Amino acid sequence: MMGILACCLLRPLKPCGFNTPVPGTGADVVDESGHTVPPNSVGELVMRKHVMGLTQGLWNEDERYIENYWSTWPGIWHHGDFASRDDDGHWYIWGRSDDTLKIAGKRTGPSEIEALLMATGKLAEAAAIGVPDPIKGSALVLVCVPRSGVEVTADELSYTVVHGLGTPFKPRAVLFVPDLPKTRNLKIMRRVIRAAYLGDSPGDVSSLVNPESIEEIRARR
Q1: pTM assigned to the model
Q2: How far apart are CA 117 and CA 169, in angstroms?
């Protein structure tokens, strides 16, 4: 694969953002219908152009390549990342769209919720997961690691999310744990967290550096 967004020294820089798309990619941010979203709205990062350097397929799996990357919208390359652009044309990546939470008909990415939580300054780590709900379809559960020596309550974090995203996103539960399951490159494994909370098998956890964190989540359900 190739890059879609980059930083150019001829344009101003902003923390955690990219100031330009790679030329020739036709980079865009689109909604569920494949239409360009307005500035400051989160959507799917796509490429509207076939560019040199883009992979031509997967080894012995050409059909899966088309299905995974080209079948969502005709003629648009889509790989499953949430992104947004601000009013100055700077781009931001919000995480994987296949982690999308759809609660009471409203969609958001867990990274957006986690950013609200981390902005409180009271957490060392946070994970937002969706669990089955008979009314909303999915309900929000927060699994958080408080900062050492800092007091924080479930009600405080719940208010933070509701204030930022609205009442439908009021968490069903807020769990405080000493650690979150992570890989060796410190990627938080939401899939494993969700399985632990629901009492399901977490699957292959050989890549985790702290598998004992799974039992901590189960114990605090």
Answers
A1: 0.64
A2: 13
